[in-house]
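hi!! sorry for the late reply, been swamped w classes. u asked for the two structures so here they r. pasted raw, havent cleaned anything up. first the sequence of the first protein and right below it the tokens
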Amino acid sequence: AIETLSSRSGRYYVVVASSIDGDLIMDYAKKLSAKGASLTIIPPFGKTKFHRLAVSYADNYTSAQAAADGMKGGDYGNNVWVVKY
């Protein structure tokens, strides 16, 4: 499943990709979704113009960062980080 957020949720998202082009993020999301991943697309907000693709979320930073650290070096490489939205 691929969800695109329309407003801030206050959650912390584990992001695995970002792109200035929303179509590229959607293409990557479809590729990961075909492998069974449940994904969230975070639209550009604030001063950033990047769309972000999240594979997980948590209600607090500590939990989200622990999940991100656990994913590093795996399917998503080492470019895994946490964003609050």
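now the second protein. again sequence first, tokens right under
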Amino acid sequence: MAILKRHHAPGMPPEVYDQANAAVAESEMGADGFVAHYGVAEGPGITVVEIWDSQAQHDKWFDANVRPLLPPGTPEPEFWEIRASRTK
């Protein structure tokens, strides 16, 4: 079942997100189970919302590619099962 991930990094400057995003974008695009990525400035920090085919596929890619780039103390992502989806 597809999942939606929300990951808020409080206090992360947009420039730091931009660098990390650029470093992992190609890998993420080729990752098994990856569907979509959205990064937004939210208050004092960055929030990433992604869609993956499964949390296990996300976790495998995330742990190898993103986790090493995060500052200590960054909260863990949150996940929800997608019940319905529509795009234009």
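hope this helps!! also noticed smth abt the second:
The radius of gyration is 13 Å.
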